[in-house]
Amino acid sequence: MTTIPGRALHYVFKIGDRAKNAFFFRNILGMQVLRHEEFKEGCDAECNGPYDNRWSKTMVGYGPENTHFVIELTYNYGVKSYEMGNDFGGITIYSKDILTRAAQNSYPVAKQGDSNVLTSPDGYNFYIVESSPTASSDPVQQVELNVTNLAATRKFWHELLNMNLVNETDSSILLTYNAKQTSLRLTLLNKPISRAKAYGRIAFAVPGSVQKPLFDAVTKAGGTILKPLITLDTPGKATVTVLILADPDGHEICFVDEEGFTELSELEPNAGDQLDKYIRKDPFQEKK
Known about the structure:
Distance between the termini: 55 Å
Number of strands: 16
Low-confidence stretches: none
Oligomer: single chain
Helix content: 10-25%
Radius of gyration: 18 Å
Strand content: 35-45%
């Protein structure tokens, strides 16, 4: 299969308290609310997990989605928490300001070796490197997922999905579709992977013409297809086509068409206000 012109987009977190998460991602990590969308029923691609209820999607990051790797926060109304597994490692961010903001807001910072670790309200780890990113790089430098077999992982992500192999050791592999993008580190975990209820999903954009050949290649290789090519509608916005796969450890991967996603992900200047409005209106949100 020829090289895939992929673009790393975002990682999906399920969250249980939008107010606490809004504070953490905006006031501690310093991210901007890029867009906010409300849905009355579950997603055909299970973007919000296996829940057929009202839910919301909030995209947060350090810049527009067409140039930055961002975080997708999915909130299911009435679900206050999710059981954490051991599948997600953490997200590495380069910043000289985050630890200062954490101290100013009395937000706890843990040490893990040489790393400064901030944990989100739902238990997701962020590794903070006190250094400014280069002018051409994203502050979000790396997403880490845990795996159980590096040989099978390498074959799937590098040989089948055609991600470029940046670095390989006995304990992890580092991959990317483009050296200027956020990279994916897959780290060996010497115990079974549990995805529990809080499992996430990583997303990439590819040209629409690539999706069917990718589907065919994964199918031929005996890979797991969670959702074949389906279209997703967002009220008042562009329709996108998505393909949802799973790697050998069950990590979910979404490939969305670049053409539709570019239109769908346009920056919304009032997204932060929309998020705040729905937090105030939320009957399940604990009122302070």
